[in-house]
Amino acid sequence: RAKLHVSVQVEVAWGRLGGNGAFAGIAEDLRDFPFIAALGLSSYPYLGGFSEPDEVPLDYYSRLAPSPALPLLVVEGGWSSASVPGVTSSPEKQARWIARQMRIADSARATAVFQITFTDLDLSGWPVPPGSILPLFASLGLVDADFRAKPALAEWDKAFARTLGRR
Questions:
Q1: Rg (Cα) of the chain, in Å, rounded?
Q2: What's residue 165's pLDDT?
Q3: Is the pTM of this model over 0.90?
Q4: Helix/strand/coil (H, E, C) string of the chain?
Q5: Residue 27's pLDDT band (cuts 50, 70, 90)
Q6: How far, in Å, CA of 128 to CA of 85, rounded?
Q7: To pair with 115 at 20 to 30 A between CA atoms, which of 30, 40, 79, 105?
């Protein structure tokens, strides 16, 4: 009974990651995968050039929906709580992203939003090769590597506690 889906990179569709800055959409993805029963969204807006969560437009997800009949699922993504090359961030900014993302997901009538990274990664014990992209994603957790809550956890808990009828 599982719904087949593919995941598209939202920042690529918007032309903000590896593109020319112009909205590209996902028409090619839909042609390549005509059998999907849901559309997965992968989104890391801080890597797409947004410096503040409130800069991300409310139609960031909904603009990708080919029709209301195709459910949208946010299957991966987030906002780093630490600054990374080219991006200044903080735990508070990450928390603001969680709140903004829920408004964006509501606007898109997303069926689900997943937070696949609960804890930050402790890279101190890993030999991270030069040029690795892993540090860009190491601080996406709702808690730090020692399981101490970050401000984003409270925002996630608020979103998780909502009922469908109280959006």
A1: 16
A2: 47
A3: yes
A4: CCCCEEEEEHHHHCCCCCCCCCCCCCHHHHHHCCCCCEEEEEECHHHHCCCCHHHCCCCCCHHHCCCCCCCEEEEEECCCCCCECCECCCHHHHHHHHHHHHHHHHHCCCCEECCCCCECCCHHHCCCCCCCCHHHHCCCCCECCCCCECHHHHHHHHHHHCCHHHC
A5: very high
A6: 15
A7: 30
